[in-house]
Every structure is written in structure tokens, then in C-alpha cells.
Structure prediction request, 476 residues.
Amino acid sequence: MIISDSKMNSTPKPRLRFAPSPTGHLHIGGARTALYNYLLARQTGGTFILRIEDTDLERSTPESIQAILNGMNWLKLKWDEGPFFQTKRFDLYQQHIDKLLKEGKVYPCFCTAEELDRKRKQAQSEKRKPMYDRTCFNLIKEEVRQKIDAGQPYCIRFKSPDSGETVVHDVIKGDVVVANKELDDLIIRRTDGSPTYNFTVVVDDVTMAITHVIRGDDHLNNTPRQIQLYEALGYPLPIFAHVPMILGSDRQRLSKRHGATSVIAYKEMGYLPDALLNYLARLGWSYKDQEEFTRPELIEKFSLKSCSVSAGVFNPEKLLWLNGVYIRKAKPDDLTTLIIPFLEKKGIQHIDKAVLLEGVKISQEKVKTLVEMAEMVDFFFMEVEPDEKLKVKFFTDETRPILKKIIDRLNALDPWAHDPIAAVFNHLVVETALGLGKIAQPVRVALTGRTVSAGVFEIIRILGKEKTLERIKKFV
RNA sequence: GCUCCCAUCGUCUAACGGUUAGGACGCGGCCCUCUCAAGGCCGUAAUACGGGUUCGAUUCCCGUUGGGAGCGCCA
Prediction:
């Protein structure tokens, strides 16, 4: 009886990781990968690990590390272990290299980057697949010794098998088989002594006891090489799952050209983290016809088995719609807290929280982002000045007498509440035989400076008698 | 060029080999309405192509075409 790989590898408590390289912000695709790992960890009672892959000393920056952490925190993708940094683990990698060296599974290569570059270009111009030609593998022992003694710099290459095939048992893609002759001897340690990606992932995933490797399918081509390294090292394989890419509207890999790709940019545009997560979850995964998922539902229902196998196009309109859904569902108190930075950004200093709460309640179902919501409530806290065009259109010889009446009647109003306020307007509708729109719209403009807002009766109520009358009086 | 992956409405996707091919976003129309939304109803639109297998293919197999990824001393 043969036990399947997945069975052999399924330990009671899964350990999953998200392993970004700190060379920029946390982007949409990375966030989704992080989310899938997170969801599975939570679903299974497993562990979610954050590992920073910073072996590229040239391009890794502290700012990027912070940006990734900020993104993760904003999305509330809480990790259980880490962040671990590969730059702090060089000793570990070196130990593994020494072991392979001793076993003759790797070898020093003295070829210079320039030489290799030349050969690569030549191969490409001859329409051949660029592969290392094993110049240094074929060196005899004596030559190797001489070069090393002479102090010639070298990197370390992995001697990959040249026959047979390597198969990836991928949970999403199925079995992917690659002929070993397609894989050349990859560099696992650079001339400067630092280890390279394909090697460090393997060592890390093994030493961190990662059970499930879930990542973008741009890594699928690397996986056979990594499997060879696992085998050379004598380590068991994790379960692999390669999630499809996220593309832009032109079906090219998602990039800045397609608009915002940074998670934090969505925060700044007034998106709610749970809305983004919900959207991302559904881009590449589905559960029947369901579109909206709370976080506990995602944790409960997410499955690699129902991940899609083909790339998906990022659709900002659908994300915007979903954000609107989340804003409508949100507790007014929470929105009140969230909206304050957006108001401050507009230069609004003194915010009456009670007024803001009321404002939030009446605009909640009219907006799709926090930015829009700030637009919708800002006039409560600042003087308004309608455009000249609006003034001309709404404050006319016809409307001024009506506004005057409104002022008088509101002034006499007691109590100051929605229904009496509505009654003032409704009586005027009857008296003047004008539509409510005709009467309410000039008031709206006087009060908010705009033609679009929440209901005027509510606005009048919240704004209070003094401010309401003051603002209308300016236009009679 | 070589290797790998992929292919259902414009987009995200659903459909034990048997469905009038379903849902969602968007778009259009109607209703509601103090503006804008929200909501309700209706509509629009897809199995890339060609061969097989089968009583029957969106579904399984092969090919073509198209798209994506990899081929770095990047990750």
C-alpha cells in the first residue's frame, strides 16, 4: 500500500508562511497570498508565519519592511511567528551548503557574471534556452584547487540531475512534471558568500517546519528545482499550492500602470480592510454563488480545492461596490472613528463627535468609500461657499421669497426635530404648488454648498437652528 | 526560441458527462424618490477553434490559436 504524499505530509497542525521580499510596498497580489495562508492557518488551528526574504542586499530596504508590516497590520492579518529575516540566518544556510559540499552535491564555479551574461545572450540570439554549460563542473580536482589557492572568486552551484524527471504534486494545478534536463545547475551561493533565493526558501521552509507552501504561480517553474534541493538535503516535501496570478485589465501582470497596487493606497482611498480582503478572497476562489463573506466565514469556508486555476483580472469597480456594501453594514460608531483622519486631511480641526456620528448615519448608504463619506459630512464642520454657478441657478427671485418663509418658520419651530422640519417643507409644497425638489434643492445648496447630500431634513436637524438659519440667510 | 501553466458573459465565477449554461460587478430600462445613493423588478451578454471518445460533451483526450509565467550571482 503506497501512502500518498499529501497523507505523509499532513501533520496535525499545519504551519504556513507568507514570505515577501522587502523591495516595495505590500501589493494586492502579495496580500491575497498572505490572506490565503492566514485563512488556512486559522481554519486548521495551525500557525501563520511571516518571513522577510531579504537576501538581496541591494534592493531590500527598511522602508519596504515597514511598508509590508503596515499593510499586514492594516489588513489585520496577524501572524503567529516572526517576522523572521533571512539575513539573520546566514549561518544556517552556510551549514547546509557545507553539508552539500561535503557530499559532493554542489561545486564551486569560477565563471564570471560577465562571461555568463555573454553566453546567455548568445544562446538567446541562437534561439536556445539559456542554460549553464557546466564549464566548472568539468574542471578536474587539481584545477579547482589551484584556482581556489590563487584566490580566484567563486560561487557555489547545485549539481542537478541530468536525466529523469521531477514532478510537483500541486494542490491547485495538479501534477506538473518537468524533465530534469530542462533544469541547469543553479547558483545557491553568490560570489560574495550570500545564499540565493531558491536555496534559502528550501532551507527555511524545512527548518521552520512549513507544511504547506502557498504562493503565486510565478513560482511554479522554480518548484522542481526546489524539490531537487529538498531531495539533495534529504528533507521531506511540503504540500505545494500555486495560486494563479492577478492581472490588470489588459491581461498583463498587475502593475502601477493599472492604478493603485499598494494595499496602503487603498487605505488612503478610503477602503475598509475587510472589504479588500473579501474582494481578494473572491478573486481566485469561490464558494457557490456567495459574494459577501465575514472574516469568520472566510476562515470556515476557504479551500484550496475551490481555488481557480487560471489567472484573474483585478476589477476595481467590483471592489468599489463591495466596499460600499461594507460601509453600509458597518457600525456608525466605527465609521465615525475611521472617518476622522479623512476629515483632518481636509483641514478640519474641531470635530463634534456627536454631530459626526449623526452625519455618518445619514450618509452611510450613499457612499462607497471613506473619502466620499468625508465629502458627505465635511460641511457640518466648516463654512460652505457654493460655486457661483450654483448660486445663480438656485438663488433666484423665485426662490428667495420661499427661503425667507423657510427661515421664518424654522425660526419659530419647536421642537427642533425631523418631523416638524419636514412639515415646514411639506406645507410650503402645498402653498406654492411647487415640487419638493424645487424647494429643498436651494436649501441643500445653502447648507452644504453642493447639490448632492443626505436628506435635507436630517441635515437641518443635525446642523441645528442657529447654523441652519445663518447659512440660508446668506442667500435671501 | 525553449519549458511550464491556463482558456465559460467585458470582468470575477457556478454548473456528479444530461441545466432554458446559474450568480455577482458593470451596463441599459422601469419602480421608489427632496438631490445622490440604497433597494425592488426586468433586460444585456459566455462555453476560443478543430478533431476525437460517448446515446449525450462547458465537463474527458489530442491538436491549433490565444494569454500568462519561468529560462538572473532577483525574489
Summary: Chain A is about 50% helix and 10% strand.
